[in-house]
Amino acid sequence: MTIGFDTYLVGGAVRDELLGLPVADRDWVVVGATSEVLLSLGFIPVGADFPCFLHPQSKEEYALARTKRNSLVSGAGLGAGSNNTGQHYINDFSPEVTLEQDLLNRDLTINGMAKSMDGVLIDPSNGYEDLQQRVLRHVGPTFCDDPIRVLRVARFAARYQHLGFTVHTTTQELMAEMVTAGELNHLTPERVWKEIYRALSSPKPSVFFQVLRDCGALEALMPELDCLFGVPQPAEHHPEIDSGLHVMMAVDQARQRFDEPQVTWAAVMHDLGKGVTPKQEWPRHIGHEQTGVPLVAAVCARFNVPKDYRELARLVAEHHLRCHRLLEAKPKGIMALLEALDGLRRPQRVQRFAQACTADALGRLGREQAEYPQAALLESCLEAATEVDIKPLLAKGYSGEALADQIRQLRIAAIRNYLKHRQSCDPCQ
Predict the structure, then answer these.
(1) Which is deepest, 42, 153, 341, 373, by most CB within 10 Å?
(2) Is residue 300 within 8 Å of residue 317, measured between CB atoms?
(3) What is the C-alpha separation between 150 and 217, in angstroms, rounded?
(4) What pLDDT does 366 receive?
């Protein structure tokens, strides 16, 4: 690197390397330079909120060292904002900002370490010790400058739970104070969804939601999900009893078995209707599928959830019991379910729907390894319906609604034939 400024490997790359984990991305901090200097060297600007650049050869990210300073003008300058004390601040990216100043403005101590080009560890907030103790601890009071850090802590807890990491008590308390102060109300939907989306791919997403719940953030962000905890279900079908616990078990099943964020999100949303069941009807939740649909829509609208995630979540909430009862369903009923899913045009949606229903069925105490033949059955029925040859119908002159009705009847017949064949091959079915 050109003489005149220094570069340091920072953040996740240093953390994961010390944990012995694969390093996916390497981020660098530049000390003693300006944006103009980096641009003159061919660096490519990519940062919207603060000066960040891609290296012209490696394409790794390089950001100018930054710190925060108080300002008398609200919203002035690049990256302006306000912290939870009501004081205004602006980010300072001047060449005089030191590496230590930059690191002490980060969220967690384990993310506040850097490594020099000759391999020396710089650790002003004792992140290495917290790494050894498996503790997620905030660096300092600047943690409160950005409420998205509440969600980031929860996401890191979910990401590293399998290594034994837990949130430090003082950090939990600070997060709760931020929630009580209404700091999360200032977050944009896009930033919240970005953290949720990342958490869905963590090894144990339920930890993300539990950490948020512990500090009150889940109630603030998703009261429809938070209120499920403590709501009982029939022990016959749900030995775990608690609706919130069941959803968390289903979420982890979805992640571990299928590793598809759309499916995991559908598992998060699938039982929201149980949260509005009148208490006098507990532990039964008749019609919770229908009552859950507008709740799913409300949550997805709140965070601008992508359309494909939103649609799958709605369909799983509305139709998961139909999938569970598939072994007793008639061919016409199976066809109706495939039509509700728009499965003939979107076969991948049927697969993901079946996966989410599988996660629901296995997300129950003592049934985590149970069989769920309904998933394969639904996909096989779709395959049978898809293979129907409509050319003879066209040759007979069918068109319009008459053609559509004839095609549907052929597909129902194909499903019926498949079920008969399946039963003959396995009389126990």
Answers:
(1) 153
(2) no
(3) 8
(4) 95
Instruction: Say if residue 1's pLDDT is above 60.
Output: no
Sequence-distant (6+) residues with CB within 8 A of 415 are: 331, 334, 335, 381, 384, 385
Closest CA to 361 of 340, 348, 377: 377
Exposed, middle or buried by CB within 10 Å (0-12, 13-18, 19+), for 14? Answer: buried
In order, the DSSP letters of 251-310 are HHHHHHHH--HHHHHHHHHTTGGGGGS-GGGTT--TTHHHHHHHHHHHHHHHTT--HHHH
Residues above pLDDT 90, as percent of the chain? 79
Return the closest-CA partner of residue 266 out of 193, 210, 317.
317
Q: 352 with 342: CB under 8 angstroms?
A: no
170: part of which helix (H) or strand (E)? Answer: helix 169-180
Longest CA–CA separation in the chain, Å: 82
The string of pLDDT tens digits covering residues 172-203 is 999 999 999 999 999 999 999 999 999 999 99
Query: CA torsion angle for 394, 400, 405, 409 (degrees, to 10)?
Result: 20
- Amino acid occupying residue 93: F
What is the average pLDDT value for the chain, to the nearest integer?
Answer: 91
Task: Kindly state the DSSP code that residue 41 receives in the 8-state scheme.
Answer: T
Distance CA 268, CA 258 (A): 14
pTM, rounded to two decimals: 0.90
pLDDT for 24 equals 83
How far, in Å, CA of 423 to CA of 429, rounded? Answer: 6
Strand partners, 88: 82
Q: What would the DSSP string read from start to end of 210-260?
A: HHHHHTTHHHHH-HHHHTTTT-B--TTT-TT-BHHHHHHHHHHHHHHHH--
**Continuous segment of H or E residues that includes residue 136:** strand 135-136
Using DSSP's 3-state secondary structure scheme, residue 28 falls into strand
Examine the pLDDT at 167 and tell me if it is beyond 90.
Answer: yes
CB-based contact 382:338 (threshold 8 Å)? yes
pLDDT in tens, 335-382: 999 999 999 999 999 999 999 999 999 999 999 999 999 999 999 999
